[in-house]
Amino acid sequence: MGQPENRSRRGAVESELPPGQRLQRGWPVTHYGPVPKFRPERWEFRVFGATADGDKRCWTHEEFSALPFSTVVADLHCVTKFSMLGAEWGGVPARTIAELAPPAADVTHVMVWAEYGFSANMRLADFVSERSIFATHKDGELLTAEHGFPLRLVVPQLYAWKGPKWVRGVEYMTADRRGFWEERGYHNVGDPWREQRYSYQEEPGDGPEL
Predict the structure, then answer these.
(1) What tens digit of pLDDT does each residue of 41-84 get?
(2) Structure pTM?
(3) How crowded is the C-beta side of 151, counted as CA atoms within 13 Å?
(4) Which of 71, 76, 176, 188 has the greatest number of beta carbons closer than 10 A?
(5) Cα 24 to chain center, whole Å?
(6) How far apart are CA 178 and CA 167, in angstroms?
(7) CA 147, CA 143: separation in Å to the nearest integer?
């Protein structure tokens, strides 16, 4: 009796995976470059660019940590073809940041900036999605440095490279601009359900020319 049930459960899990992905047990460490050293007294989170009032908004680490804490259960799909399903991410919803530091009316995209000048662009609608979150915790545990402590962005509806580790700020943009990996051959949109992995797959309107 147990064997058919197990096969059924595996089939249900596999049906939740985007095309070309495989279910991952555990959480591999993947990133470009070294792990930055966290210095709380120097850490600052900035929102800048085309803000509604034209001003920049900044939070110290203590101030950011005091923002309302939320959790969201969401998957993580890496472009290297592994997927983690049903993780609980805890932190500050991206839409909370957009409410505290609103974008101008003509903003269409954001650039998320991280340590060492790393960047990832996305549509404003993806950024303010109800499941996009600046995560400090996973499954109730504080993130490790290798996984992005003190702050990483999780955007479940896009490939994981769109959610950088070690985030330091957000730039509001009135026109799209490619980020670090998008300039190096990755798809400008990065929708895993459409398997948008590489720039050669782009169609007109998917992003600015390389």
Answers:
(1) 999 999 999 999 999 999 999 999 999 999 999 999 999 999 99
(2) 0.90
(3) 28
(4) 188
(5) 18
(6) 17
(7) 6
